[in-house]
Amino acid sequence: MTVLPYLAAGWLVLAGLYGVVTSRHAVQAVGCLTVVESGTYVLLLAVGYRKGGTAPYFTDIPPGRVVVDPVAQALTLTDVVVGAAVTALLLALVLQLAKRHGTVDPDALTGLRG
Fold first, then answer.
1. Residue 26's Cα: distance from chain center in Å?
2. Dihedral in degrees, nearest 10, Cα atoms 32, 79, 4, 18
3. Mean pLDDT of residues grouped by 10 in the chain (114 residues)?
4. d(CA 35, CA 83)
5. DSSP E strands, the chain
6. What is the reported pLDDT for 1?
7. Is there a contact between 72 and 44 (Cβ–Cβ < 8 Å)?
8. In a 3-state reduction of DSSP, which class is residue 67?
9. What pLDDT shows up at residue 14?
């Protein structure tokens, strides 16, 4: 078992979180959030990986053959679809923010302070 995919997933999550925290543009923050989501894809695929495993089509595989985890693949696919929907929603909100306030800089949005 190698730890490289887990390190890559951790690095993607940390780099994306750093970008979200330090971004001065809302579109850049949304882009950094997609990098965090990419880290979750890599993590889910690393969890479901089996060395020497084949695709989990059980109709033509002889008994005893090693297959990869189909649940992790399904969760990754679901994560991709949900991530695309969330990214589209956030970008639509950024467009509305730019239209109503004329800026996408979080520091310039004084009307949103509580």
1. 17
2. 20
3. 90 96 92 94 88 74 77 90 95 92 81 60
4. 10
5. none
6. 63
7. yes
8. strand
9. 97
Dihedrals φ, ψ of 67, to 5°? -125, 155
- Write down the pLDDT at residue 112: 57
Q: What is the pLDDT of residue 92?
A: 96
Residue tagged 């310039």 (tokens): 108
Q: Are 47 and 34 in contact (CB under 8 A)?
A: no
| CA–CA gap between residue 68 and residue 54 (Å, rounded) | 6
Q: Which of 40, 45, 48, 41 is nearest to 68 (CA)?
A: 48
Q: What is the per-residue DSSP string for the chain? A: --SHHHHHHHHHHHHHHHHHHH-SSHHHHHHHHHHHHHHHHHHHHHHH--TT-B---TTSPPTT--B--HHHHHHHHHHHHHHHHHHHHHHHHHHHHHHHHS---GGG-GGG--
pLDDT at 113: 58
List the structure tokens of 20. Answer: 């979200």
The pLDDT value recorded for residue 27 is 93
